[in-house]
Amino acid sequence: QVQLVEFGGGLVAPGGSLRLSCVASGRTFRSSAMGWFRQAPGKEREFVAAISWTGDNTGYSDSVKGRFTISRDNAEKTVHLQMNSLKPEDTAVYYCAASDYSSWSKGSRGYDYWGQGTQVTVSS
């Protein structure tokens, strides 16, 4: 089992930045691919970014590519999502997810453990 706790959400003005963090506990974190997903009110959960267990392979949705950066620190069992140039359409609950596999996936079914989510609101 892996337990995930997200931190760093909040209210930010358009064009601003936030850094989300996800701390893992439980079974080994080092071999798990990690992902970030988000869900806006009335919409389905969507893929945002993911990273392989080694950290050298990452993927992003087209809507955040060039603005968001995912990274991980296996020693600290932490994965981060740096979000820059935020837009109102980035407003959502952001979820951290861990996979039992070392390679990441864009599909939510590729992840076995989920955090409780953290709210990100982009508004002036």
Q: How would you describe what is shown here?
A:
The structure is a single chain. The chain is 0% helix and 48% strand. It starts with a strand and ends with a strand. The protein has strands at residues 2-7, 10-12, 18-26, 34-39, 46-51, 58-60, 68-73, 78-83, 92-98, 113-114, 118-122. The mean pLDDT is 95. The strands form 2 sheets. Strands 2, 4, 5, 6, 9, 10 and 11 form a 7-stranded mixed sheet that branches. It has 124 residues and is mostly beta strands.
Alpha-beta classification: mainly beta
What Rg do the Cα atoms give? Answer: 13 Å
Strand content: over 45%
Distance between the termini: 40 Å
Q: How much helix is in the residues?
A: under 10%
Overall pLDDT confidence? 95
Q: What does the main sheet amount to?
A: 7 strands, mixed
Number of beta-strand segments = 11
How are helices and strands ordered from N to C?
EEEEEEEEEEE
Overall 3D form: globular
Extract low-pLDDT stretches: none
Number of helices: 0
Task: Explain briefly what this protein structure is.
This protein is mainly beta and 124 residues long. The chain is built from no helices and eleven strands. It has strands spanning 2-7, 10-12, 18-26, 34-39, 46-51, 58-60, 68-73, 78-83, 92-98, 113-114, 118-122.
Key features?
11 strands, 0% helix, 124 residues, 48% strand, mainly beta, four-stranded antiparallel β-sheet
Q: Helices and strands in order, then pairings?
A:
Blueprint: E1 2-7, E2 10-12, E3 18-26, E4 34-39, E5 46-51, E6 58-60, E7 68-73, E8 78-83, E9 92-98, E10 113-114, E11 118-122
Parallel strand pairs: 2-11
Antiparallel strand pairs: 1-3, 3-8, 4-5, 4-9, 5-6, 7-8, 9-10, 9-11
